Amino acid sequence: MPRLLLLLPTTTYRAEAFLDAARKLGLEVMVGSKRANVLPDPHTAGFLPLNLDDPDEAVRAAVEFAETTSIDAVIGVDDNTTVLATVIAAALGLPHNSVASVSAARNKHLLRDLLRQHGVPVPNFTLFSIDDDPQALADTITFPCVVKPLVLSASCGVIRANHEAEFVAAFRRVKALLTKLGLVATDDAARKILVEDFVPGREVALEGLLTNGKLRVLALFDKPDPLDGPFFEETLYVTPSRLPANVQVEIASCAAKAARALGLCEGAIHGELRVNDDGIWVIETAARSIGGRCSRTLRFAAGMSLEELILRHALRMDLPSLDHEQEPAGVMMLPIPRAGILSEVRGQERALAVPGIEELAITAQPGQELVPLPEGTRYLGFLIARGDTPEAVEAALREAHSKLELVIGETVTQAPKSKVIHF
User: Fold this and answer.
1) Which of 61, 155, 311, 410 is the most buried (most CB within 10 A)?
2) How far is the C-alpha of 184 from the C-alpha of 47, rounded, in Å?
3) What percent of the chain lies above the pLDDT cut of 90?
4) For residues 257 and 117, is the Cβ–Cβ distance under 8 A?
5) Higher model confidence: residue 3 or residue 422?
């Protein structure tokens, strides 16, 4: 029986989907993480304690385990664990991308530098130290610009600035966030801030699979909501894309060039690209699959999930058709409208009753502190819909969202009252 080492951070939406896929394939799973409570069901997998914050220690522990118990594949589910999975796979002699390529995909500056060297369109960018004085830097900046940390994901810490005062405030805000998260003391990349030109246009997300360096596009998602700032909260993903076929071909070609520029050749990739009159622009290329619960929108041949496809590829198992069902589908990552303590989410039954809505998952728990972007790192939950057309899917998601009412209490530093928010 093939054995999978699945690396899970202490907070993730992806555990259940990968464990379900492994069970369907009859795999033996060892979960590597700092704490065993990442397992939704302790009976579904074994547990290997790994300090994911110390790569050297984690690799030593994994190699020591593999001396007595074989490991056939190592999978990470987010940016950090994907890098570590590659290092462990290299140490075990398993097929893998180069550590340099996956590390570059993880670091926004290295990624842009490599892409620019290989002629892949990226925004103009400059790297600064968090200790730089933003007031002194402002004269060197082209506006509008986007200020972002190198190491965070899901638009956390990403802020648009239209003029000098906004730039100074955004720079200081990103620095404060990195310091509060404790990253400045442990990660050299967290001591840098990237500033790049704002690229207007429509944004799309590409889900793909690399085999021997060849990219197969699994899905292309439209992002119907304009992502123009000041923060860049992603909400709607709808597939198939409604862009013209020739534009979709250009997007796929650009994503393939980006992967080659980074040196990625195997496994899942997730790209974020912008489309405007000047062409296709790469915003991100990650050496992992789509985040959150968004993968639940995709179904492949014989009911195969995206996670099953990824595991089959990693284990060199037979792959059925990679064509996903063409039934339009979409996901809404439920935004957090204001800070506070979650009391309850009303209207869930009304939202689920909207035609086309397939699933509603409120992942935030009552009593949990909600933090909106740009400091927030989590969503309120996810809505998933299917329909006859992408337009119908989008309409269903928006209508279902409008049925929800969010009751948020104040934090201990605020006045003791609650507020009902109608979406």
Assistant:
1) 311
2) 30
3) 80
4) no
5) 3
CA distance linking residue 16 with residue 197, whole number of Å = 38
Residue pLDDT, tens place only, 19-61: 999 999 999 999 999 887 666 666 678 999 999 989 999 999 9
According to DSSP, residue 41 is labeled S
Bridge partners, 295 (sequence order): none
Report the candidate in 22, 39, 27, 28 with the shortest Cα–Cα distance to residue 308: 22
Cis before 374 (ω within 30): yes
- HSE (side-chain half, CA atoms, 13 Å) at 396: 26
The helix (run of H) or strand (run of E) holding residue 274 is strand 267-276
- CATH 3.40.50.20 fits domain 3-103: yes
For every residue of 160-216, DSSP letters joined together read EESSHHHHHHHHHHHHHHHHHTT-TTT-GGGGEEEEEE---SEEEEEEEEEETTEEE
| Apex 388 CA angle, 386 and 392, nearest 5 | 70
CB 93 within 8 A of CB 74: no
Question: Under a CB-based contact definition with an 8 Å cutoff, are residues 379 and 334 in contact?
Answer: yes
For the structural domain made of 124-197, what CATH number should be given?
A: 3.30.1490.20
Q: What is the pLDDT of residues 372-381, one digit of tens each?
A: 999 998 899 9
CA angle 52, 54, 58 (to 5 degrees): 65
CB atoms within 10 A of CB 416: 8
Angstrom distance (rounded) from CA 414 to CA 406: 18
Q: What is the pLDDT of residue 415?
A: 45
Q: What are the structural domain ranges in the chain?
A: 3-103, 124-197, 329-423
CATH of region 329-423, choose from 1.20.120, 3.90.1170, 3.30.1490, 3.30.420: 3.90.1170
Structure tokens at 250: 């250009």
Cis peptide before 320 (omega within 30 of 0): no
